[in-house]
């Protein structure tokens, strides 16, 4: 078995070869989730290695859980694998590849995804193999055999994929597709095989609380195709060139490779665009959040759970174009308006995987999807140019990194300057400090401190009123009375804030 074998393997490496190996993890079998084999795992030279025994299984006609799992021959084990190119053995003694199915090497050369046994039999053993076939076909650009395609669309297989396979296993496969070299091809295959609802599954109780039905799964292909066009213009996988987007909108993707996977997963979920649901506390959430959390069980892997609902929230703010209307910013405080927009938490939360450039990029994708695909050349060009003009103006004003910039004065410096104890009011003043530095890009800390002192002395910033209003708000939240939010705003306005 895997565990005793790897224990001896690790001991040999440590004692005889003095090679460090990570600790051994044991992954229990779980027949109910089509995980039939106990597996031992360790890491050697930064490579994750799984150790399992060769096996053979017997099934009853109406059950996908094997009645008997026993040690098998290499041929029996190879025939049980998901696809032929994954059934190749490497003999560590002869240093030769052994193709026991007599199909693996030919399929590798020809670019074919094929199951060693009849595909229905292979998929009934473990329906997750359908999704693995999609992943390998998209990863290598291989073609599936017609028999495999038919079996993948079999209703009993798709039903088992929803009801039998753990959502964590499906989420893990999808994560690898989104991080792979051809996420667009993966989404195309998912739609061609009618697998969309099997993979992007929404629990029935949440679906019943949805604000409206989802649109056609084909819009996921449209969104991913447009995104691919933007990220890789002129690529062979797309057929409709678009106007190049401003380099600023693509800048964060090269700095954070996880951004591309988040954008493609968000685009894959486009059939749920704009759909919300209420939780037990009657709080609204985007339906994409439920898919990521419950349907795919991705947790916060690659910031999916934080970032993708945020991308949809930002798109809802930007997709109508009002926030990018250039007339809105043509005033003496243009730099302030633009800087505050980029720092808006709905557009930018760097610690949660959301960057303002990716928010704008996804909003652009959403607009282009609404134009259809392939989009009307004139309408698409006008839409992209609007985003490009906005990005160009950000560059001209030197605001590219403003979303993560810190105020010139920190909280201690502000409280010392106005001779008051820190409290919730401090953030309000710090926000005013940041507005000043947006308006005065050449200003330094001394100039900012001088300005703040004058604002407070003249009571244009009424610190005492802020302290009272924020303290009252805190008491209200604690059930101790205090001023209302409306009264708080009136007090601030009367104080000049």
UniProtKB/TrEMBL annotation:
Stretch list, region Disordered: 470-497
Limits of the Poly A polymerase head domain? 34-114
Top-level lineage group: Eukaryota
Single GO biological process annotation from the record: tRNA 3'-terminal CCA addition
Q: Which GO terms describe its molecular function?
A: ATP:3'-cytidine-cytidine-tRNA adenylyltransferase activity; CC tRNA cytidylyltransferase activity; nucleotide binding; RNA binding
Q: Which InterPro entries match?
A: NT_sf (IPR043519), PolA_pol_head_dom (IPR002646), PolyA_RNA-bd (IPR032828)
Where does the tRNA nucleotidyltransferase/poly(A) polymerase RNA and SrmB- binding domain lie? 141-200
| Any one Pfam family match given in the protein's UniProt record, by short name | PolyA_pol_RNAbd
Answer yes or no on keyword Protease.
no
- Name the UniProt record assigns to this protein: Poly A polymerase head domain-containing protein
């Amino acid at each position: 078995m895997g565990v005793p074998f790897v224990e001896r393997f690790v001991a040999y490496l440590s004692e005889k070869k003095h090679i460090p190996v990570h600790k051994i993890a044991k992954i229990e079998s779980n027949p109910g989730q089509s995980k039939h084999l106990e597996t031992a795992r360790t890491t050697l030279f930064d490579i994750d290695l799984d150790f399992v025994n060769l096996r053979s299984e017997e099934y009853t006609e109406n059950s996908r859980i094997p009645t008997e799992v026993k040690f098998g021959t290499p041929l029996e084990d190879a025939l049980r694998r998901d696809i032929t190119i994954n059934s190749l053995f490497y003999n560590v003694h002869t240093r030769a590849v052994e193709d026991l199915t007599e199909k693996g090497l030919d399929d590798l050369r020809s670019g074919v995804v094929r199951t060693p046994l009849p595909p229905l039999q292979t998929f009934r053993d473990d329906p997750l193999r359908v999704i693995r076939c999609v992943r390998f076909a998209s990863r290598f650009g291989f073609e599936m055999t017609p028999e495999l395609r038919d079996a993948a669309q079999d209703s009993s297989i798709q039903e088992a994929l929803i009801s039998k396979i753990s959502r964590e296993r499906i989420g893990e496969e999808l994560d690898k597709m989104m991080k792979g070299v051809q996420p667009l091809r993966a989404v195309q295959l998912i739609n061609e095989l009618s697998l969309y609802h099997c993979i992007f599954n929404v629990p029935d109780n949440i679906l019943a609380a949805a604000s409206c039905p989802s649109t056609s799964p084909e819009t996921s292909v449209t969104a991913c195709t447009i995104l691919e066009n933007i990220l890789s213009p002129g690529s062979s996988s797309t057929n409709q060139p678009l106007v190049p987007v401003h380099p600023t909108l693509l800048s964060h993707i090269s700095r954070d490779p996880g951004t591309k996977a988040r954008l493609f997963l968000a685009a894959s979920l486009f059939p749920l665009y704009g759909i919300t649901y209420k939780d037990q506390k009657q709080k609204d959430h985007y339906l994409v959040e439920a898919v990521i959390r419950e349907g795919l069980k991705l947790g916060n892997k690659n910031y999916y759970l934080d970032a993708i609902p945020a991308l949809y929230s930002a798109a809802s703010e930007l997709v109508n174009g009002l926030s990018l209307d250039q007339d809105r910013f043509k005033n003496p405080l243009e730099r302030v308006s633009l800087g505050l927009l980029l720092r808006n938490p709905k557009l930018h939360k760097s610690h949660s995987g959301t960057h303002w450039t990716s928010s704008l990029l996804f909003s652009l994708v959403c607009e282009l999807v609404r134009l259809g695909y392939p989009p009307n050349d004139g309408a698409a060009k006008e839409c992209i140019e609007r985003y490009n003009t906005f990005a160009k103006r950000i560059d001209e004003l030197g605001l590219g990194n403003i979303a993560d910039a810190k105020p010139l004065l920190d909280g201690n410096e502000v409280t010392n300057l106005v001779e008051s104890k820190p409290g919730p009011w401090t953030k309000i003043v710090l926000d005013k400090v940041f507005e000043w530095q947006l308006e005065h890009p050449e200003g330094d800390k001394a100039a900012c401190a001088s300005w703040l002192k004058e604002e407070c002395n003249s009571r244009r910033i009424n610190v005492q009123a802020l302290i009272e209003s924020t303290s009252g708000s805190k008491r209200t939240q604690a059930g101790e009375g205090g001023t209302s939010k409306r009264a708080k705003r009136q007090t601030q306005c009367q104080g000049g804030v």
